[in-house]
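Worked Example 4.2. Read the sequence first, then its structure tokens.
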Amino acid sequence: MKKLQLDFHVRPAQTPWLGLLLCVLGVIAVLWVMTQIDVAKEQKNQLELQEDSIALRIKQRDSKVKAELNASPVSAKVEKIRRDQLLSHAPAFDLLERVWEQEIAFSRLEIATVERDIKMDLEAKSLNDVLLLVDRFEAAPATKHVTLARNSLKIGDPNRPAVAAIEVLWLADPAVPSSTTSTAASTAASRVHSASAASGVH
């Protein structure tokens, strides 16, 4: 086997290609290792940045939760108002549908869902029909209290119908569960409107 010529100061009889190749490969290997070290450092830095970002988000979330737990009374009041706005008119229309009769026409109807209060002005053929309506309200399981605010005869009308004002408070949790859906509530509203139209009251 021919001996390798690695002394570059001595002019060899021929160029030591094998030795040069090994040196080049060695330099390439060193450069590749240094590159991989730089890549590893960069990946480590990115991981540290991601960890810091995650830790910051967790801290912000914990601060938000703590702030919500320590919410001021004003915030609680706003939340109560928001919940009250989600209340439905369906129980009121359900109660009206239960007690309504064709002899009754509503000329004014106000429903306050937060107070669970119904205020109405109505016309009936006679005062007896008004009193029967009050009795039906009082007999309804969903009714809490009924007040007949005023009643009289409509003098200007030749038929002399009875006019009255009634206020009804309904229960938040009726003793008898109501099976009325939003469709039934809409039907009750349309029936009230039709009765008012039939009586010529606006």
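Now turn to a second chain, presented in exactly the same format:
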Amino acid sequence: MRETDRFLWGILALAALLIVASMVAVGLQGRAGEQPPEPGTPARVVWDYVQALQDERYLDAFALIAPSYPPDATEFAAKMSRQRNADPGTNRVSRVRFDKTIISGEKATVTVFVTTFYASGPFSDSLYERVETAQLRKIEGQWRITAFFYPYWLYDWDRRLPEAPSWKGQD
């Protein structure tokens, strides 16, 4: 065998090894998460909600949402299941890291970094990170979600019909 052939085979073997090692490392990094936030905090509600949806425990996730955001548990479970199954990123790993929580009276905003890894082939993997926020409100002493981010929330749940004007006292 010529020396150039051995050199070429060595480069190809090294490239294949690096590709496999990077896919394993990114996959493991996506699964390795930080410790859950302290119980009773808005961040912990966000954590529990994401975990419940990832585990397809839709009723547990629904229990963490403020009343009427979405209308009922059956609709919530059906829409979240459809959304999960319709996602084209079938080889997707997501991770949520917490940044900060701002509490103002009975309202809270939790800022998180969402990292998503799409593995669609040996040469087309991508990593995407974005900053998102979740809105919560304290209801009867418990933090409940009032607004969240895609893909864990549907935008039509934020739309409310405008209240009809009151005609009382106007003759």
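Notes for the reader: The two ends are 102 Å apart (CA to CA). Helices lie at 3-31, 42-54, 58-62, 73-86.
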